[in-house]
Amino acid sequence: MGQFLSSFQISVPDLPAKIYEISAELPDNPYSELAHFENILSDRTWGEAHRIRGGDGKWYIAVFGHEHEPKEVDADGITLSLEYKTTLDPENPRHRGAIGQALRDGFGSYLTSVLDCWEYNERGNFYEADPIRTVRGDEAVYEMFRGIRTSIDYRSGFGFMLSLDPTRKFVDERTLADRLDAHGESEVINQFGDGRRYFFFDRPEPQPVRLHSVSDAVVTDETMNIDGEPTSVLSFVDNNYGSEWAGKIDPNEPVVKYKYSRGNRTYDAAPSLLRLIPNQEEVTTQASTLEADERWEEVQEWIRPVHYIRLGDHEADVADTPIRDGVDTFGFPALSFGDDTVLEVGTSDLTSSGDITRDIWEYRTLDYLEEFGPKRKPMDEPWVAVLHTDSTRQTAFDAFDDIRSYVKRFADLDLKEQPGGVSFESRSEYDQWKEEFAQKVTGAFAYLTGDSQTEYYDVINAVNGKPVQHIRHENYQQERNRDESYSLRNTATDLHRNSVFDRSC
Question: Its domain of life (predicted)?
């Protein structure tokens, strides 16, 4: 992730920490267990508790931000014992994950508790409590919420930085219960059921879910089983979400079944808490598009009250002005094609008269690739993952198919036909995908719906700096049916140019 004008430096103080050892052998995929231990230690020590890797490769839990330090803590039969004390150092790669997560949690807590924002899908996207306007789309009238995408990352030479990017969220003004009353179960299921569309699940921590079906039961029937005890949807909402959400539900409304994107299990919900998420529409794209000065004004508005991020008993100061070093300092590399052809600024243009200049360098990479061919090709089909938003999965894969054809045309290279991918708006799925597949892919193709740089850089981070190219929804919709798409051609050749060579094509 590069530094850009909406990134603010964070000064992390010394963080004295207690390091707890885990007595049990952890499974190969230990993340749910580690999260459980973090929660237990946070409750028992009253401090921040986050996982770290020790020098021996084992997982430990670092606790900081409070002086209470029990020698041992029982975690459902597993002993968490105080092993040693240290000071967490941002320059130590093994400590950065714990510090970064604590900063993200602290900033998120400020946005939700002080500014009364809600976080969508645990992705670091926060929105104001009330919509700022409504927008009439093709399928519904949508409420538009103003929000901010946030990321906190460590960058060599700068330390930790907070990056902000304004965003918008659209959800149907009507609930699924309203749609069932107006159109009936059959029409609603035919249009939206069996996972065809995402719905916004209105709860304290909203998430996107897919509608599966409508059951014969009502929300007061005991259709759920929680820890071996039967309960109703209405009781579950009241006990877990609160009276504000329970009050939105009519006791006579039916129970609907929903699924998360990657799972096959169905869950029960009240239709009054589900609202349609629009597919990308021109009206929502236009409504969410901000000019550069508007975007910067909103960044300033969000950052103005932020002076520090609380880390338990400690405070990490946040700079008032953005980082500006290193912006717009990227040069044009010399690229090799075919057997011995080099494209470099200041040399003769071998595809036309004149010299290669900075203004035409990008265009000539396409011409050179088509004229002289790539410098080398990978032995196997490159695996380029497709990363998309909740509502654009199919369109993203359509765009990738088009890009595959351009890569074949310009580089005579076959990309993996069914690459797989994930929504980067679903944090749990995204994190699972990163853990399982990010190390295996050759690169990534990101299908973006807004003007945010944060989404793009987040994808780069997800694949650990491997080549990433992206296309925006608006550009793809405008050019997808053209005989020659400049956006698709550039994306395809840039993906190849940046993925199979070091300064070569």
Answer: Archaea
CB 439 within 8 A of CB 404: no
The span from the CA of 190 to the CA of 449, in Å, is 27
d(CA 468, CA 7): 21
The two tokens of residue 395 are 């369109």
Q: What are the residues whose beta carbons fall under 8 Å from the beta carbon of 314, sequence distance 6 or more?
A: 13, 15, 64, 65
Write out the H or E segment, with its range, that includes residue 435: helix 427-437
Q: Which residues contact 449 (CB under 8 A, 6 or more apart)?
A: 280, 285, 389, 391, 392, 472, 473
263 token code pair: 């799972």
Which are the contacts of 202, defined by CB distance < 8 A and separation ≥ 6?
175, 245, 248, 273, 274, 275
Q: Is the pLDDT of residue 455 over 70?
A: no
Tell me how far apart the alpha carbons of residues 32 and 219 are, in angstroms, rounded to a whole number: 30
Residue 309 banded pLDDT, cuts 50, 70, 90: very high
Of the listed ranges 22-31, 129-138, 422-431, the one predicted with least confidence: 422-431
Measured distance CA(403)–CA(480) in Å, rounded:
10
CB 422 within 8 A of CB 392: no
* Rounded mean pLDDT, 410-421: 72
User: Tell me, what's the pLDDT at 385?
Assistant: 85
The arithmetic mean of pLDDT across residues 110-137, rounded, is 91
| Rounded mean pLDDT, 61-71 | 89
DSSP 378-423: -SS---EEEEE-TT-HHHHHHHHHHHHHHHHHHH--PPPSS--EEE
E-strand ranges in 123-243 read 125-127, 133-136, 141-155, 159-172, 198-201, 207-218, 224-226, 229-231
Global pTM exceeds 0.85: no
* The two structure tokens encoding residue 178: 């309203």
